[in-house]
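Lab notebook page, bench 4
Experiment: in silico fold of construct C2
Operator: M.H.
Input chain length: 322 residues
Purpose: comparison with the prior construct
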Amino acid sequence: MFDPSWTKRSWKDIAPTVQSFITSIQTIQQQLDSPLIAPMGRYLRKQLPPFLLLRDFFFEHETDARAIIEDQVKFEEALSAIAHQRYHETGEKVRRAVVRSIIYIFLTKMVLALALEAPVDVLIMKRVDYLPLVINAIFPPLLLFLITAFIAIPGADNTKRLLDRIKLIIYQFTEYQKGQDAFTLAVARKRPLLAGIFSFVYMVGFMISFGLIIFILTNLHFNIASQIIFVFFVALVTLFAYRIRQSAKEYEMIERQGILEPIIDFFFLPILYAGDFLSKEIAKINIFIFIFDFILEAPLKVIFEVIEEWIRFIRTKKEEII
């Protein structure tokens, strides 16, 4: 965007443009660090689903899009078919992500159990305590499964909302503009007493969440290494599960919230923030990137590719019989 001809430059032309390239990178980073980015991103995500479905429609009907749009019934049928297909793909994508994450976490935990937890047990207790090892290996993937097991894929009600919004955009764009709130950076009302109370309640939730975990682990005779690894993986698993749940909402118009969800959020939000913090900090440490990407993730990618090829092979053989 800053230098459209960058990809067409030869090696001889690169040297004089290095400084401008660095300046462009710095400008981009400054824009990414802007306080407007996060609230603008949240605003745009809420507006995105109908435009994603419209994009898919134009990709699938490049030659006859105008003719279909002019016939409102055909337009609705085409959009409904695409939405149904996207919901199906979202469900498949979520299931793959869950299975891969569970296998990845389980195998990673087994490696760490053998590399760290067992040696610390031998060093401190002169024996290996198998209960913490088993819990540490099984609980994080089980937690991921339980959190993601109840992910709801959008259905007919969501499709109707999408179609209503798209028809408004296509056929009555002026009305659509009037009904939309323009993006504004909301200025929080200054209520220091209320803000202090909320911060205190949040801190209490943080201490209850992690304090309860440490209390239970201590009573189960987890050593310090086992406790650190357990908390580390529970935080990351919570983050993985949250991201998987968010990926299922790509085409969802209105986020659904259960009655108990605010209460659950109160206790899980500190763990989620801890997972987000750990994820960002680990990304800055080269040795961790090497361990997770090269030693752990690369072999798992090969395993997943072999499994997917095997499933594809079996499916092909079944189709040949049919």
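Observations: Residues 37-284 form one domain. The chain has one domain: 37-284.
Next step: discuss at group meeting.
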